[in-house]
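Sample 3 of the quickstart, ligand tetrahydrodeoxyuridine:
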Amino acid sequence: MDANKSDREMEELFKQAQAAAFNAYAPYSGFSVGAALLGQDGVVYTGCNVENRSYGNTICAERGAVMKAVSSGITAFKAIALSTPDSIAPVAPCGACRQVLSEFMPPESPVFFGGSGQERVLTSIGELYPFDSLHELKG
Ligand code: THU
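Result:
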């Protein structure tokens, strides 16, 4: 875990994820997700899930935030927070998002998530995506 990120900083990032969830386009699942990704530049890049009537074209909130940041020229991140207001309990990032986040975040990077209840989970991308593979493809 990145010791430089305090609980208070992660709570602040989480608030931005909660705000981002309001923009979710989720008419099919009815399940809104918001993400807030802290760039190495100190800027927070938010994302929400964007669904499609051809369901497989749906983009998760986390990957939306990554695409926003990378297309803005930022390819290294310090932390991510995820809000799932339609679930009382915290919901962890999906497998595809764990893989994509691991491309741009070191294993110790904090991942913080919560639903509409009080419970929060603070973990790391390395804990969520252990035995990471294909490093040999990365320059
Ligand atoms: N979803 C995310 O945005 N992130 C995740 O990590 C899990 C799932 C979205 C995709 C879909 O729009 C809805 O949540 C239900 O799966």
